[in-house]
Amino acid sequence: MLTFEHVNKRRGARDILTDITFHARPGRVTGFLGPNGAGKSSTLRILLGLDRPTSGQALVDGQRFASLRDPLRSIGAVLDGSGAHRSRTGRAHLRWVARSAGIGNARVEELLELVGIADAGNKRVSTYSLGMGRRLGLAAALLADPGALVFDEPVNGLDPEGIRWIRLFLREQAQAGRTVLLSSHLMSELAETVDDVVVIVGGRIVADGTLAEVTGNHKNLEDAFFALTGDRGAR
Amino acid sequence: MRALRAELSKLATLPFVWLAVAAGLIVPTGIAVITSLTTTPGSDTGFSELAIGVLGAIILGVAAIGSEYTAEGEESAGSRQITTTLTAVPSRVRLLLAKVIAVAIATAVLAVVAIALVFATVHLLLGPDAPALDGDTFARATGAVVYWVLMALLGFGLTVLTRNGIIPMAVLVANSSAVTVTYLLAQSIPAANYLPDLAGMRMFTTVSTSVEIAPLTGGLVMAAWVIALLIAAGAVFTRRDA
C-alpha cells in the first residue's frame, strides 16, 4: 500500500503540490493521471524520497521510504528514462543495483531475459533506444521482486508492441498481488489497464475513485478527464 | 557494506574511471622518463612526478559523484543515475559514506601502483643516482598515497556541491599540473601555504616557500580542509532535492 497524506510542496514562491492525499492499493493498478506539469512526477519523487515535501508525508506500507531497510524489495520504480549512466553497459548497471540489495548476478541475467534486452546486455546504454532504456529501468525495478511498482509515464517513447507488452505486464503484476502505481498524461492508453484513477490538475487532486466512478456519466475516461481538467479542445 | 560493494562496482564499470586510472599511471611515469633522461636527480626525484600524477586521483574522485548527475537529451536512453542510486540506497549519509570509502580505496590502490611504476622507472634509468629505497623514501611514499586520496576526496566533495564535474575537475587538474595558482599565491601571501594542496604536498615533496611546514602538520592541515569540505557537502547533499 502506498499512501500520500496531505503532501504539500513549495518551490520558491510557487505551490507545486497542494494537499495531495490518496492511496494505491495492493492487487490493483492505480492510474495517476494529469496533464504535463500537473505535479505527477513531483508526487512520485516525494514518495521515493528524492524530493522533500514541504509538509505532509508519503508512506510505503506505513513507513517513509528513507527509513526502509530493504527499499528495492519494498518498491521498484521507473522514473525518467533508464536511470542508468550512458557509458555503462546495461548488464553492469543491473549488477551494481543488484549489489546494493545483496542480489546475485544470476538474477541480473534472468531480468535481462525477462525484459528482452539480453542481446544488448554488453552494449553501452548510450547506444540503446528509448524503449530499450525503459526496459532496462524496468529490469532494475524488478530485481528484488518488490511488493509495489511505481512508473512515471511508462508508455512514453514505446512502440505499439512495447505499449501492449507493458500493459499486459502491469495487469499481471497487479493480479500477483502487487501494488502498481503509474502516472500518465495519455488517457486512451490507460483506460484498459487501470482499476483505480486519481486525477491531478495544477498540483491538486480533482478526482479519486475506481475507473467506473471517475468515468461517471462520460462516454469514456478520456472525456471524463477533459471535463475535469477543463480542456475540451483537441490535445 | 552492500552500499560500498555497489559503489565499488560502479567505479569499476565506468569507462571514465579507467581513463583516470590510465592518466594516474601514464602521466607520472612518462614525466619520470623525461626528467630522468634530461635533469640531474635531486631530493624530489620521483616525488615531483607524483605531485602532477595526482590529476588521475582528482579525475577519479570527481567522476565518482559527477557521473551520478550526467544527463542527456530526451531522445537518449541514458539519464540521471542519481534517481536509481537513491532508490537503491535511500539513506544519503550512508550513500555518501559508501562513496567516500570507495573513492579512498580505489585512489589508494591507484597511488600505490603509480608510485611503484614511477620508482621502478627512475631506478631503471638512473641506477645508483635514484633515491634509495630507505625508510625516509617509504615515509614520503606513504605521504604521497595520503595526498592522492585526499585530493580525490577534495574533487569529490566539490563535485557533490556543484553536481557537475567539469568545473571542479578543470580547476583542480589545472592547479596540480599546468598553472599552479596556489603556489604562485603562496609566493606573496604566506597564509596561502595552508591551502589544502600546498599543505599536503609537504608530506612528500620539498616545497620551498617562505613558510616551513612539517610533513605531518601539512598532512593534518590538508585532512582538516577535506573533512570540513566533506561535512559541508554532506549537509547540502542530505538536505536538497535530488
From TrEMBL, chain B:
Protein's UniProt keywords contain Repeat: no
Transmembrane region(s): 12-38, 50-71, 100-126, 138-159, 166-186, 213-237
Keyword Ribonucleoprotein (UniProt): no
A Pfam family annotated for this UniProt entry: ABC2_membrane_4
Record's keyword terms, sorted: Membrane, Transmembrane, Transmembrane helix
Name of the molecule in the record: ABC transporter permease
Lineage start: Bacteria, Bacillati, Actinomycetota, Actinomycetes, Propionibacteriales
